[in-house]
Amino acid sequence: MSHASDSRTRIFAIANQKGGVGKTTTAINLATALAATGETILLIDLDPQGNASTGLGIAREDRLTGSYRLIADATPATDAIRVTKIPGLAVIPADADLAGAEIELVDVPRREFRLRDAIAPLRAGAYGFVLIDCTPSLGLLTLNALVAADAVLVPLQCEFFALEGISQLVRTIEVVRRGFNPDLTLQGIVLTMFDRRNNLSDQVAVDARSFFGACVYDTVIPRNIRISEAPSHGKPVLLYDYRSAGAQAYIHLASELLRRERGRKEPIA
Ligand code: ADP
Ligand code: MG
Fold this sequence. Notes:
Strand 6, helix 8 and strand 7 form a beta-alpha-beta unit. 45% of the residues are buried. Helix 1 packs across helix 12. This protein has 12 helices and 8 strands. The protein has an 8-stranded mixed sheet with strand order 3-4-2-5-1-6-7-8, sandwiched between helices. It is an alpha/beta fold. 40% of the residues lie in helices and 17% in strands. The chain starts with 9 loop residues before the first strand and ends in a 6-residue tail after the last helix. It has a single domain, classed as Rossmann fold. Bound molecules: adenosine-5'-diphosphate and magnesium ion (MG). Magnesium ion binds next to helix 1.
């Protein structure tokens, strides 16, 4: 069931080459909030750290066939998909071998297209949205995500130097467009870990909005202790503490994303 995109699956890479900015947190909780609206969602964990898999309660024993098998062998994507406790949310976990992928992929044919090729059959399937949780680098794994995706969703932590990092990512998106994926767009920028008691948070938000305009989501994710506690319980914050400011922010983000997607003009064929 996918009312936002009707027939077309939309694939988003959640990327920012800085670590600790809220990629995985956004992947887990946005996926959950979207699933709660009735959308059918697939989250692909493409970070060898496997934090998205852990945060969704997928045990290590249950990660043998994951995103590495998908890009390294011809393993069909459907073999790597696990259900989660959240109705409507499935996950392709990160398997242990993913840690070696950056190096192993260097010599394989179509190395930038491995993920795109592997998930191509899913576009015709049941998912309204596929979210890819990227690793904190601009290496081959992130490149695979950017080549496989329709658009990039960038979590931006409200801290010093946040904008310098993002300009490098924007240049990478340009390179990917020119070389591999001409239709790639910037879906949006999500301000994360916003602390309203901190002037710097405000300043980063103002700067981001003046530079990226409407690309920046109105919804801001606050710094919220419940968000950081939830993964150790193997749960998204929506299940851990639905009423928390963090859970509510991700619910808002999901509805804003769906509004954006519904307002999106389909390119004329
Ligand atoms: P990334 O995937 O970009 O490396 P994470 O999503 O893992 O970043 O977040 C880094 C750390 O910050 C994690 O410990 C996470 O629980 C915490 N965190 C993320 N978002 C928030 C938030 N809004 N409030 C409080 N802690 C957060
Ligand atoms: Mg992460």
